[in-house]
Amino acid sequence: MARPTYQRIADELRKRILEGTYNPGDRLPSRQALASEFDVGPRVAADAIQQLAVEGYVVSKTGSGTYVRPRPAVRRLTRSWYREARGGSPFRADMAAQAVRGGWESASEPVTAPAEIAERLALDTDAEVMRTTYTFTGDGEPVMLSTSYEPLELTRGTAVVLPEDGGYAGRGVVERMRAIGQHIIQASEIVTARSAGGEEAERLGIGRGTVVMVIKRTYFTEERPVETADIVVPTDRYELAYMIPVEQG
């Protein structure tokens, strides 16, 4: 099946942006000019521009036109057991290493574990978990999202039941769990990619449909999983760097 005409126009404009024909900050031809160049109606040209806006390549300014979006500097997020085990916030340490002020907003509430989360935490389907949603920022701009889940059968009534309240607020999962006698020995991460949903795009300040990385992370003690999270990272802003310990023989 042939691709819709507006997608073929978007493909050509995207190619021009990636090859440098249109540079960051350049104004794209008007919709009328594009309609004339590609011999289509203005509505088709508008749909092509909208497709590029959704993908994050361009931004439209009312009364001014459509401009190539400056590509943000790619920063690094380090996934390292050594850094997790030291204590404190690994995210804040990452940002500080790149001269960026790291922070976050969060909200916690007890909920019944969704089916996938119950499976990841080896819980009964009616078990309660503390769900905490995060929006992480760098210099005040949104960087990544996270939704974490911790079994309330472990944390209820303890000093760490609310991840961002009390004496352990702002600490990493490893340090918080250690405070209640849960010694994490390993973590697993599954990394996939998909298009951002509407709410995610709004919270991250990106176009709906922009490709994001999704990290499904789970922490384990010797006996059980004690925390799992879905972490959402825009691919055009951050790269993941994994530091893997190697035992010396």
TrEMBL record:
One of its GO terms (molecular function) is DNA-binding transcription factor activity. Keywords: DNA-binding, Transcription, Transcription regulation. It holds the Pfam family GntR. GO terms for biological process: negative regulation of DNA-templated transcription. It comes from the Bacteria. Residues 3-71 form the HTH gntR-type domain. This is GntR family transcriptional regulator. The lineage of its organism: Bacteria, Bacillati, Actinomycetota, Actinomycetes, Streptosporangiales.
